[in-house]
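re: ur question from earlier - yeah i can do the single chain one, its not a big deal. heres the input i used so u can compare w yours
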Amino acid sequence: MKSKFTNFLILPTLTLSFGILAAVLLPNRGKIAVLIGSTTGSIIGAYSQHLKSEENEDSGINSSNLSPEKRLIILREQVTIFQNHLQQLSQDLNGHSSVVTASSSPQTAVNQIHQISEDQEVITWLTQQGIKVQNYHKSDENEEVFNKLASYLGNKHSELRYFYKQLKRSFSKGENLALNLNSRSKQEITCTTQFCNRMSDYAFLTSYQYDRKKKMLYASPQRTGIVINFITGGWFERFIYLSLCQLLKEHEQPYKSILNPQIILQDGEDFELDILFLIQESPFWIECKTGDYQNHVTKYSKMRTVLSIPKECSLLVILGISDQLTEELTNLHNIYIANENNFLEKAKTLIIPSNRF
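and the output i got, formated as tokens:
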């Protein structure tokens, strides 16, 4: 009875997951995507029944008694088959490689399917508010690199503050960086050179040199869009997001999330959110600014009402402002304001039930 009930739940879930994945990979082939998802789920169901029959006839072993490890191996085999078929079909129809490549590991494919399913729940919530989602950030094989750099810059920001301001300025002006660190502390210099070494390793800097005697740092930033977006603000969003995910996990709060959804509002206006969580089915919206926040506070306050999100479920995190200013801005505007030092404390008060009172 338990095995039948489990299959009853698993097979529709697999069908839905593959259908969503196919829709993402083949956005302009809606009917085909649905057909692929449904057919794949049916194939897996048929395979499961075939396996059960084969085991009963040949070995007398009941498939319901298979170990979890064996079941996982079987599922991975089916995912791999699905990848290969979908990869070929996507290339035939679109003329380019799909998001989930045939060279990806089965576990990576399973993780991507799981992520797409979670993203869809947040998208569904937005749709229920009358908001259309055009696009959003999708995880890829480069996530870990960006996460490592973002975490280092965020956790060491007090030591990297001076360097980061100069680096960001060099990006905005399109100039190389020549930085005198004579007036900086030993800890600042150590963190700065370590961070530059990491950026150089990942080719975020096309050239890098540090003269220990003169304490002069020379660097040429990479001018590609992905690097520019990361340095000028993308790292801060990642740092805030990763920190909040960790907070929720520590307090055992189930959540779904989506990053950088590009949306169309009820009146047809375009807008892009930074981070949107669903925490126990309730929204929690976060925006992040590394500078020039003055023009955005009022806009975000108004947007909160358009999104039908309560003030206590919204947070604007601004880099480099004082704790006192965060309190004053919160009182002035219809959105909570925090900085890089107190955002976790404020978020904990807002989203962890035991800390709300």
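The longest helix spans residues 30-58. not sure if urs matches, ping me
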